[in-house]
Amino acid sequence: MSSALPVLALALTAILLTAVAPRILASARWLRRTPAATLALWQVVGAAGVLSALMTAPAAAIALATDGGTIPTIFNETTRVSLALVVATVMSGGMLLMLLFSAHQIGRDLRADRRAQRHVVDVVASQVDGQVRVIDHPGRSAYCLPGLRPRVVLTTGAVDALNEEELEAVIAHEHAHTGARHDLMLEFFTVLHRTVPRPLRSTAALREVRLLIELLADRHAARRVGPQPLGSALALMAGSRHPSAALGSGSNTEDLIARVQALPDHGRTHPSTLPLVLLTAVVGLTPWALLVWAFWA
């Protein structure tokens, strides 16, 4: 049975990292103090969970082919059809199909929506300054349309409501999104979220990732302009709306409170950063270590 242990370990790791870990991370609010390190951990946890599921079938095949392997069989010893191999293949194959389907569907829809939005913005914009477009609308709104040809969009209502420093903070926040391609990060998490079977998905985890991405952009803006103008801009832009395919500055009340509370942390490095980096490395290496174990078991 020892040759089956790596297979079981990979399957258990996949379940823990895709179903359990996101719920634990989403409830650990103190991780918001280090959005960059926390997002790196989130990404590695998600990738390692999917990778563990994809590696389960190869690990079972390796274990089955190992001399002296004692994995239980479905029929008899002559069939060489392993129960573990069948289950692992279904698990890995199902995860791969869902991953490819989710990536194709989400990527296609997002890029089509953003192309359409960029076209509309370019047509109706009353002012153009590099990537920045200002459109005539009394409501307060600021958002970006990321991609190879990004746009930062402001309404005249937002421009009129914000002073110079606050406006600079909002623009810096949106430029942080487009410059660091936070949209790809969010797309990655969304694909992983859709890949996980529906009963195991955590909506709270996806919401937390969205908040962390906003906190990461806030950190860039606070370091450029200062926390006070950013805090004022956040309050003035609270509740603003933007297209679903865009990344925007508006927040609901709960997220706004979290972003304001995080303002003092944007100017310093938190002591938990190094432990988080080490944990990220351990999680990322775990599926590969288990696959090596399967080969040598």
TrEMBL record:
<feature type="transmembrane region" description="Helical">
    <location>
        <begin position="276"/>
        <end position="296"/>
    </location>
</feature>
<feature type="transmembrane region" description="Helical">
    <location>
        <begin position="38"/>
        <end position="61"/>
    </location>
</feature>
<keyword id="KW-0479">Metal-binding</keyword>
<feature type="domain" description="Peptidase M48">
    <location>
        <begin position="126"/>
        <end position="185"/>
    </location>
</feature>
<feature type="transmembrane region" description="Helical">
    <location>
        <begin position="81"/>
        <end position="101"/>
    </location>
</feature>
<protein>
    <submittedName>
        <fullName>M56 family metallopeptidase</fullName>
    </submittedName>
</protein>
<dbReference type="InterPro" id="IPR052173">
    <property type="entry name" value="Beta-lactam_resp_regulator"/>
</dbReference>
<keyword id="KW-0645">Protease</keyword>
<keyword id="KW-0482">Metalloprotease</keyword>
<comment type="similarity">
    <text>Belongs to the peptidase M48 family.</text>
</comment>
<keyword id="KW-0378">Hydrolase</keyword>
<keyword id="KW-0812">Transmembrane</keyword>
<keyword id="KW-1133">Transmembrane helix</keyword>
<feature type="transmembrane region" description="Helical">
    <location>
        <begin position="6"/>
        <end position="26"/>
    </location>
</feature>
<dbReference type="InterPro" id="IPR001915">
    <property type="entry name" value="Peptidase_M48"/>
</dbReference>
<keyword id="KW-0472">Membrane</keyword>
<keyword id="KW-0862">Zinc</keyword>
<dbReference type="Pfam" id="PF01435">
    <property type="entry name" value="Peptidase_M48"/>
</dbReference>
